Amino acid sequence: MATWAEFETAAPALAARVKERFDAHKHKTLATIRRDGGPRISGTEVEFAGGELWIGSMWRAVKALDLQRDPRFAIHSGTEDPEGDWPGEAKIAGVAEEVPGDGSSHRFRLDLREASVVGLNPERTKLWIDVWTVDGGLRRIER
User: Under CATH, to which class is 4-116 assigned?
Assistant: First the structure.
């Protein structure tokens, strides 16, 4: 796994695009795993600080309880209608580590396993998916 700073060092252009898409909208969609193994979707915000990526949660919220039980997550940036000048969207996935606090909220540092940006090629005829993974590095998928 990698910190945000390690991802920026490994794939600086992609990291800048991911951050730009995440900064474009305040609210993101967080996927966690429920106690029964099913998926859960929750709203969240992210913070880039000190070379790390962070999320918070209200005290004892189900998304925080999910992450305490199973720290795997995926987060999807806000998105816009793909008509016109679509800027694409970004996704990250990895493992959350709770940082002890004062007991009034939860704070999680996010370690990344993968990050991607989905966009269109210059001709706007195909999807370009630029993906970085800890094990595989950077690659482009065209569909």
Answer: mainly beta
